[in-house]
Specification:
The protein has ten helices and no strands. With 208 residues, the protein is mostly helical.
Length: 208
């Protein structure tokens, strides 16, 4: 529904398709890090995404190899689409953002597996990245952009100001609270809810 809400005009059908691919891949990677991977495999996968090295994923389970190949091909295809429309190819920039997203997912996976009790502040700092919102916004920016980019574009930085605003923080918290209630996790999901409940003894999911 997000792509339809953000790009409602019928003429934007191709852009919606590219955005759907991006959002779907964020959810796939989220599940990969939350459910399917060991810390060792996830560390290798994340390093492979940072280097975009197919050789590194050969030792990983099939699901990770398939995911890596799909991510690699998708970023290349979207880059070619944007090049055909606007005359520049942002693949290097988008792949860097996917690497940053995997880095953030790996941090959360390590927290969860180790039982590390991190602060709610640390969680939100990393959670803004692991929300994937910056990846979606960047792709929207590239899909719409009519001119060439320069190296000072905030959205390309590792920690751009657009990722630190109130709206993305609210989305991160809303997602965590919804998951805690809908899935009856009672704050045991390594999310902001868990951090808050540990810092505020006697609180409940409803009070958060």
């Amino acid at each position: 529904m997000w792509p339809v809400a953000m790009l409602p005009d019928p003429s934007m059908s191709k852009m919606r398709t590219e955005l759907i691919k991006t959002i779907a891949m964020i959810y796939i990677l989220d599940d990969l890090f939350d459910v399917f991977g060991t810390i060792g495999d996830l560390s290798i996968f994340t390093e492979a995404v940072n280097r975009w090295d197919f050789n590194m994923v050969e030792q990983l389970p099939d699901c990770m190899r398939v995911c890596f190949k799909a991510l690699y091909n998708m970023t290349g295809d979207i880059g070619e689409h944007i090049y055909a429309k606007h005359g520049f190819n942002p693949t290097d920039s988008t792949r860097k953002m996917w690497a940053n997203l995997c880095d953030a997912f790996l941090v959360e996976a390590r927290w969860c597996h180790s039982g590390h009790v991190h602060s709610s502040e640390d969680y939100l700092k990393n959670g803004i990245l692991s929300s994937g919102v910056h990846v979606v916004l960047a792709h929207l920016y590239f899909l719409f952009h009519e001119g060439r980019l320069d190296d000072k574009t905030d959205i390309l930085n590792d920690s751009p100001s657009i990722m630190d605003n109130v709206a993305i923080t609210i989305l991160r918290l809303w997602d965590d609270l919804s998951s805690a209630k809908d899935e009856n996790q009672e704050g045991k999901d390594g999310s902001f809810v868990e951090c808050y409940l540990k810092e505020h003894k006697g609180s409940s999911v409803d009070s958060v």
